[in-house]
Design a protein that fits this description.
27 helices; iron; Dimethylsulfoxide Reductase, domain 2; binds ligand MGD; disordered C terminus; 4 domains; Mopterin_OxRdtase; seven-stranded mixed β-sheet; 27 strands; about 800 residues; Rossmann fold; binds molybdenum atom; alpha/beta; Phosphorylase Kinase, domain 1
Length: about 800
């Protein structure tokens, strides 16, 4: 039966008690008028519009996608679906999909064939390699393709062309997740399991609006809250999110003050002795340094910096300090900040000093956002090397060279792979002259859009955009390649609790659109990339052979996939890596018994200085952590770089609503989702609205030193002095027209600046002004928009 999942976003409760199994609830949605009897076949897949990894089957009728059904047997969702998955598949069937390649001729994009488009790309690459060398070529990919596609792209870029310039939009997303894990455990890899929700007695969410961004995980938490022995919830978020409303303690700090708050929580836990001495002595280094730094952050000091009542900080610390099974999650409220890594690391520190790791209910999720962000990182398409290999360790380079059968010197490793913000700088300076963008829409998602538009439009840049729609970015391209997407191609992907799912092809892509994997392989063949014995560098030709190649590359590394096959994935519903021949069922939790991946010879990273970002050297790391322990890293609080002023008195934060995914290329084309939140709004507090003479629904203008956006006011209990804009709205809208009036993309306003360690841009603090433009009288706000950020 089709329920209305716009008004009832989390569906019915299925309460359960601590330590028991989460009940099954199967969510199904089919096109109007169809029942399950009408479906010709169901094809196994998982969710593509967030990172939770909810398994679902795609309904096919007459060779078209007609709906979705959650997989009851799956370990992640037990049958449930997120609102965006319920409706979002309709975008696949949208009439305005790209169906042929396009090239720019005399200033306009015209239809062409694959031969012409690929020839133009390959000729340019060759010319640039001759004129300037590999540093002229850059790739900006995504967290939304499949593992097979990332691994192929990473092999082409690092092993074939020899460029360091390959990064994902994961830089905007989960670079800090990886960086924080590397700081504390010397390797990426999420310790926890979603089953920790079943056991935890305290769940702490740091800058993570899970209710709207991983709504099935929130359903699991809601069901625990509705059952016996409910957990206590700690929420750290300046907005009154749905999570905040269910919290035992809601801390609403000033944006950009997370480190001060975390230090005060750690201060309380350490001075009250709520720590696990035995665990620390056996498995952890750096305790004395941490204790020394946080000693300077009594709750009174943090209360002042963060503007949070001191009693609330004490109460939160007491709950965290008395938890028997503490589950912590971290996301963009911490990551998209000037001290992103420093703050996220303090959450790791919290679980480490409490000895709460590797046991049921004791997890850490440095959360992912995109469905396949974990794979971008594992496969080395994100400014890392494949298999969590350490670019700073010559033995790891030699090992990767062995896997690819190339010379170690052919893999550039004189410094870390280039991060995206630096790549954009190289475009600005004119040294990157071909930029290939796949599965991302930087003309809406990168900070300071006026600058980004100018860079992507540069005459000396050949911009290639591989997408499924003619996005804002594609409109600036020199070559547009039409891709097949989820449901139209086969591949695997991995969520934040290391669960690998297969997503099988259900229907044919439209027109001449091709799977990203085929496009990348075609490029490698045309460039004639070879290994050192003259064989083809890319020796695989389809998803399954690409998966086998990736497995070989992952062998012996933390993310070992060697025990997984397509067949096994199809017979079950989700396997957690590492999974090997000896460990065929996969691994529920990492770091049981305090065994880490942090041995100097094995680790992915030696870490970075949290303040400057300077890499720790091999020698320093060896001296510091010879025994492969976890590392507590302390950090002093530093104020945000751009603070409110007389001219710009507010702090602007940006983020999401449940109904839309990113730049809305899919959710804006699903009628229910589009109608729920068709246009941009700005959230501000009652007090701020009153003093600015703004009423609910009024049109307002928000300005920062970078630009201007107009949005309708939504008045809430957000903390005063802070305004919130969703970042989903680019110039594209469902009418297909580009509004010529003022902008509506939040990133018109954001700044070009990033965290020193993770290089993740700062989307969550900018100084801004807001004023009323016109009154709401006579206009109405769609129901979903009022609901959106309950
Ligand atoms: N509905 C929906 N779900 C999604 C996505 C989507 O676009 N739409 N995208 C997916 C992706 S890629 C990602 S990365 C995730 C992101 O998921 P989240 O991180 O949960 O989402 P955001 O809304 O970006 O930010 C979370 C919260 O950070 C708070 N915040 C802002 N500044 C601060 C601060 O200084 N300190 C603290 N403590 N909190 C602050 C905001 O008020 C916001 O509620 O969502 C994933 N899921
Ligand atoms: N102000 C502000 N800015 C932000 C954020 C924020 O919170 N605030 N969040 C940041 C975060 S966390 C993220 S993840 C980014 C997201 O930013 P983007 O990655 O730019 O956003 P998407 O709309 O997901 O873009 C994905 C593109 O891939 C296309 N696509 C979909 N499937 C396929 C496929 O199979 N193949 C190919 N080739 N293309 C496909 C889609 O049509 C779409 O154009 O935005 C970042 N920017
Ligand atoms: Mo993200």
């Amino acid at each position: 039966m089709n329920n209305n999942r716009i008004t009832d976003v989390w569906g019915a409760r299925t309460p359960y008690a601590a330590g028991t199994a989460w009940p099954v609830r199967v969510d199904t949605h089919l096109a109007e008028g169809l029942t399950e009897h009408d479906v010709d076949r169901w094809v196994q897949s998982a969710s593509i519009l967030h990172s939770n990894g909810d398994a679902l089957d795609i309904a096919v009728k007459d060779e078209r996608i007609v709906g979705v059904r959650g997989r009851a047997v799956d370990r992640v969702n037990h049958g449930r679906l997120d609102t965006k998955d319920v409706y979002g598949w309709q975008a696949n069937e949208s009439k305005d999909r790209l169906t042929t390649p396009l090239i720019r001729e005399n200033g306009t994009l015209v239809e062409t064939d694959w031969e012409t488009a690929m020839t133009r790309i390959v000729d340019t690459t060759r010319r640039l390699l001759e004129e300037q060398g590999p540093s002229a070529v850059g790739f900006h990919t995504t967290g939304q393709l499949f593992a097979e596609e990332y691994y192929t792209l990473a092999t082409i870029a690092h092993g074939g062309i020899g460029t360091k310039h390959l990064d994902g939009n994961t830089r905007l997303c989960t670079a800090t997740a990886a960086a924080a894990l590397k700081e504390s455990f010397a390797s990426d890899g999420q310790p926890g399991s979603y089953t920790d929700v079943d056991h935890a007695d305290v769940i702490a969410l740091f800058g993570h609006n899970v209710a709207e961004t991983q709504s099935v995980l929130w359903m699991r938490m809601l069901d625990r809250l509705a059952g016996d022995d409910p957990p206590q919830i700690i929420c750290v978020d300046p907005r009154p999110t749905p999570v905040a409303r269910h919290a035992t303690v809601h801390l609403a700090p000033r944006p950009g003050t997370n480190v001060a708050l975390m230090n005060a929580l750690l201060h309380e836990i350490i001075t009250n002795g709520w720590i696990d001495r035995d665990y620390i002595d056996a498995h952890v280094i750096g305790f004395d340094d941490l204790a020394k730094v946080v000693k300077e952050y009594p709750p009174e000091r943090a209360a002042e910096i963060c503007d949070v009542p001191v009693g609330q900080i004490r109460e939160a610390a007491r709950i965290l300090g008395h938890a028997q099974r503490l589950l912590s999650t971290v996301l963009q409220g911490f990551y998209q900040s000037h001290q992103a890594t420093a703050a996220a690391v303090q959450v790791n520190n919290l679980n480490l000093v409490r000895g709460m790791l590797g046991k049921p209910g004791c997890g850490i999720f440095q959360m992912n956002g995109q469905p396949t962000a974990q794979n971008t990182r594992e496969c080395g398409a994100d400014g890392d090397l494949p298999g969590f290999r350490n670019w700073n360790n010559p033995d790891h380079i030699a090992d990767l060279a062995r896997v690819w059968n190339v010379n170690p010197d052919d893999i550039p490793h004189y410094s870390a792979p280039t991060h995206l913000m630096q790549m954009m700088r190289y475009v600005e300076e004119g040294s990157i002259r071909q930029l290939w963008v796949s599965g991302t829409n930087p003309a809406v998602s990168l900070p300071e859009l006026a600058r980004i538009r100018a860079l992507l439009s540069k005459d000396d840049l050949q911009l290639i955009v591989q997408d499924i729609f003619l996005t804002e970015t594609a409109q600036l391209a020199d070559v547009v390649l039409p891709a097949a997407t989820w449901g139209e191609k086969t591949g695997t992907f991995t969520n934040v609790d290391r669960t690998v799912h297969i997503s099988d092809k259900a229907v044919e892509p439209p027109g001449e659109a091709k799977p990203d994997l085929e496009i990348f392989i075609d490029y490698a063949r045309r460039l004639d990339l070879r290994d050192k014995d003259g064989g083809p560098l890319i020796s695989w030709s389809d998803p399954e052979s690409a998966f086998e190649a990736w497995k070989a590359c992952s062998r012996g590394r933390p993310c070992d996939y060697t025990g997984i096959t397509y067949d096994k994935l199809r017979r079950g519903s989700g396997i957690q890596w590492p999974c090997t021949e000896d460990n065929p069922d996969g691994t529920e939790r990492l770091y049981r018994d305090g065994a880490f991946f942090s041995d100097p010879d094995y680790c992915e990273s030696y870490g970075r200085d949290l303040e400057t970002g300077a890499p720790v050297t091999a020698t320093e790391y060896r001296a510091m952590n010879p025994d492969a322990k976890a590392i507590l890293r302390a950090a002093e609080y530093i104020p945000p770089h751009e603070l409110p002023s007389e001219e710009y008195p507010f702090q602007l934060i940006t983020g999401r609503t449940i109904y839309h995914f990113h730049t809305r290329t899919k959710t804006g084309r699903a009628p229910e989702l589009n109608h729920a939140a068709p246009e941009v709004w700005v959230e501000l507090s009652t007090a701020d609205a009153r003093s600015a003479g703004i009423q609910d629904g009024d049109l307002t203008e928000i300005t920062t030193p970078r630009g201007l956006v107009q949005a309708k006011a939504r008045i809430t209990d957000i903390r005063s002095g802070v305004i919130f804009l969703p970042f989903h709205y680019g110039y594209w809208d469902t009418t297909g027209s580009a509004p010529d009036g003022p902008g509506r993309a939040a990133n018109e306003l954001t700044l070009t600046d990033w965290d020193p360690a993770s290089k993740q841009p700062i989307f969550k603090t900018a100084a801004a002004a807001i004023r009323r433009v016109s009154s709401a009288a006579g206009t109405s706000v769609p129901a979903g928009m009022k609901e959106g950020s309950r």
